Queue: 3 jobs
Job 1
Amino acid sequence: MSTVIALTDRAPAPGGLRGELPGDLLDGVRAARAAADAAEVRVLELALEWAYAHPVLPGCGHPGASHPLTGAAAYAEPAPRADADDVEAGGWYGLPEVAWDAPAGFAAANRTSTAAGAKVLRDALQLAHRLPLTWARTRAGDVPAWRARRVADAVAGQPDDVAAYVDLHVHACAGTVGPRTLARMIDEALLRLHAEDRELDQLAELDRRHATLHLETLNHTGLVEMTLRGDYTDLAALDDALTEIAHALADPDLADLVGLAGCAPDEKQEVRRALAAGVLAHPHAAAALLDAHRTGATTGARPAPSKRAVVHLHLSEAGFLGLDPVARLTAGARSSAGDGRGGADLPVLLEQVRAWLMRDDTHVTVRPVIDTTATLGSDRYEIPDRLRSHVLATRTTCIFPWCERPASSCDLDHLENWGDPDDDPPDGPPAGRTSTDNLGPECRHHHRLKTHGGWRVRRISAGHHLWADPTGHLYATTPTGTVDLG
C-alpha cells in the first residue's frame, strides 16, 4: 500500500507573501540588509558626535579617575577595583578624551550595556582619528559598520604607526578581511616597526596564564566549562594525570573508592577524563586512587568528603509541596579567583540538586531559608550578610539599565542616601535606611554614575526599579530585563 501526500494545498504564507518570486524575496533581503548597514553606520556617526559633545573639561573630570571612561580609580578611600566589563584603558590610546559618564546615556539610548556603549564610542573615534581611509569607505557604504569596527578593535591600543600601517593595507579590502588576516597584519606591522617591543610583548604573555571557571556556561544539566592557559610542561603533565585517572576509573572497584560507583567500565574515555578532574579536586582521593591503580590493591577506606560549592536554590510554593520539578539556582557565589565575584542564574531540575546532595564526596551545609517577601533592616550603615543574601535573592544582576553584571560581584548600594536614625528631623521624613527595601546591587561603574553622574533610581517593588538619566529619560529595570519608557 502506498500513501500519496498532496503538496498543492499548502496554507498561505504569513504576511501575504505567497506569490512572491524567489528573486523578488532575495531582492527584498538585499534591500533590508543595505538599510540595516546604513543605519549601523549612522549609529557610528552619532556615537562620534556624542563623544565630541562630551569632552573632558578642565576641572570637571571624574572624581579621582585615572582614565576618562574606565574610572579605574574612582575614589581615594577605599581603593576600588576596576569594573571587569569596562573597556580597557589602553584601548583609548591616541584618542580624544571623553567624559567618564558619557557612555551610559548613549548606551541606554542604544539599548546596550554601558560597556558595550563605551566600545561603540571608542570604535567610532578609532575610525575617525586613526583609520581615516577605512572610515571614508565605511561612510561611503563600501564597508559594513561591523567589519569596520572589527578593524578598529584590532588596532585599539596599538601605536599610531601600526594603526596607519593597518589602515593603508586594509582599507581596500576591509569589507571582506577576516580576524586572522587582521591579526597577522598587526603582527607584521609590530615586527617591522617595533621589533624590540614585540619581544617584550611575547614575554608579557606569561602574565596571561590563567585557570577560569566559566559559570555562565552552567545549565540544567549541571555541567560547566573551564579553560586553562599555562606552561606546556605543566599542562601536559596535568593531561597525563587525567588520562591515568581515567584509565583507573574503568575499574568499578577503583571508581567506587572515590565515590564514582556509577561510572560504567565502558564509559567514553573523554567522559572519564572529565570525571578525573573532579577526582583531582580531592587530592587525598586522587592519591588513594592512583596508588591502588599502580599497586593493584582495590580495597581501602574511602577518603572523607572535601568538595565544596555554594549554591542558592529558589523554590516556589509548589516546589515546597513537590508539585514543581523546576527551581532557580544561583551558583558560584565566588569567582575563579576566590574573591566573592561571579555567579550564574538558571532553571534547574530538583532531581539534579538531589543528585548533588547525594554525592558522598561532597560536604553539604544547609543554611537558613530566605523569605523574599519579608522586609529586613538594620540601624547601621554596614550591610549584614543576612540582608545581602536577601537582596541578591530577588535580583541576580546589576539593577542599571541593560547591565547584566552578576549581582554577587556588585556593590550593594543604598538607593536613598543613608542617614543615622538619631539624626532624623522631628517633623520631616526619615532618611534612607539599611533595609532590603532600600538596597540594590550596582556594579562599580554604575554606582559611580548614580553618585556623581546625575542618574537617579527609585525602587518600585522587589527586583523592580525606575531609573532616570540626567536628561530625564526613564528606564524600568526588572529581573527579566530593561524597558525604555521614553
Job 2
Amino acid sequence: MQKTTGIHHITAMVNDAQRNIDFYAGVLGLRLVKKTINFDRPEVYHLYFGNEAGDPGTVITFFPWENQMNGRIGTGQVGVTSYVIPAGSIAFWKDRLKKFGVRFIQNVRYGEIYLQFQDPDGLEIELVERNDGAKNPWSFGGVSSEVAIKGFGGATLISAQPNKTAEVLEDILGLEPVGQEESFLRFKSEIGNRIDIKLTPSVRGLMGAGTVHHIAWRARDEEDHKRWRELLVEKGFYPTEILDRNYFKALYFHEGGGILFEIATDEPGFAVDEPADELGKKLMLPSWLESKREELEHKLPQVESRVLEGDKQ
C-alpha cells in the first residue's frame, strides 16, 4: 500500500516577519533556510525554518502578513506542533525559554515529558526529548548543535470528526496506530513522528494569525507523488492538481475532520536555487516573478536572521 514516511513540513500564519524570525531562529535556534514569497500572494513573505540543510521533516514555514486578523485554534486544524530535542537537553531548553521570557508548562503524555509554550503569535509549540532522528549540526546564537532541535516530533490534530481523521491516518497515509491515552489517540509514522488526535470537544477553528494553515506529508519522488493523487481520487477525496512549489511538488486535500493535508515531494530541496551555505540570506523568487524583484523588495519589509541581544552577553 501507499505509505508516507512522516511529516514533510508544517505551514502557519503569523503577523510580523522579523518577530517570527527572531523567535524561530533567534530563540529556538532553527536555521532560516529560505526567504521567498507566497506564490499566490507575492506581497507576502514565505519563510522556511529547519535544520542545517532544511531536510524534509524539520521545516516549519510561515506566511507573515501584518494585516491579517488573529485566528483561533480549534477543530479543522493542527493544534500543536511538536519538536524533538536531544536526550538530556531539556534543562537547557527550560533555561533558554526562561531567559527569553517564554512562559512554558511541563506535561506528560504517553510517558514522555513535554515542554509546552506559545510563539509570539499564539501558535502552540512543544519540545520533547527523544533519541529519534539525526543530530542537527546547525548552531546559532546560544543554541549549539549539541542541544539543537532535530526536527518534528509530531503534531496534535484537532478534528471535527476524530474517527474520520483516524481512518485517513491509518488507511490512507499508512501510519501505525499506537493506542489511546486519556483524551488522545496516537499514531506513529515510519520515521517516528507521533501524531495525536485530540478526542475532547473543541471550538471551531478560525484561520488567521497564530494558527496552522496545513500539515504536509512526505512523498519519495514525483512518481510516488502521482500515485498519491491517484489513490486519493480512488478513495473519494478531491485533491488539487499537482503544483510546483520550486522546492517540492505539492497537492492538497481536506480530510474528513476538516484539516487541510498536503502531500509534498522530498525533492528537489532548498539548494536548488542557491548554494547550501547561503540558504536564507537572499530573497529568492520563482522565475516568473524575477522581473518584479525591485518592486517586491521595495514592498516587503526588510528582515534578517540575527543573534538576539540576550545571546551577545
Job 3
Amino acid sequence: MSLTSVAGLGGIGFVLLAVAINVIYVRARLPLPGATKSLGTAADEFAAAGDALKRPSVLVPATWLGLTLFAAGLVAVLWNGGSGAGAWALVGLGGVLMQNATFACVEALRFGLAAAAAHHRGSVAGLWGLSNVLFGFNQLFLATALLGFTVAGAGAGLIPGWHAILGYLSAALLFVSSCASPYNVDGTNRIALAGLIGWLGWITWIVGYSVILLGL
C-alpha cells in the first residue's frame, strides 16, 4: 500500500476516532478538555470519573498516529524540495506535530486533575487553569496545519476552491479562539462557539483531503 493511501486512511481514521472519543465522553458524562465549567464542578466531575476516564484515552494514541501519517502523506505529495508553494506543507507538518505533542500534555493533565480531585483538591485549581489555557493554545497548531497544507494544496491545484476556503476560514476561527485562551483560565469561554466551528471545519477539511489522497 502506498504512503498516500495509508495517509488517506490515517486521516479518516483520525476523524472517526476523534468523534467516537468525544461521543464516549459525552455519553459517560466525563469531563471534557476545555469544558466551560466552574472549578468546583470540574473538581467534582474529575473526582467521580475514576477509572472511567481511562477507557476512552486508550484510543487517543491511535488518533495521533493517524494524524501524523496523514500529514506525512501530504508532505510527500505536495513538497518536492525548494521554497515554492509546496514548502508550505512543512508548515502544516509542523502544526500537526506540535498539536500532537501539546494534546499529549492536555490528555496527561486530565489524569493529574482526576488524581488531585480525589486526593488533594488544593492542587486542582492550578492544574485546571493549566489544562484550560493549554487546550486553548493548542488551537493555534490546528490553525497552522490548516494554513500550511491549504496554501500548499491550493498552489498545487490539488484541492478545489471550496476546500481551500474551508481551510482558511477554519484556520482563522481557531486562531482567534486560541488568542482568547488566557481569558479562559477559570473555565469560562465566551467565544467557545468559534473554536467549535473551527474544529468541525478542521475535521471536515481532513476528510476531504483524505479522499483526495486515496484517489491518487
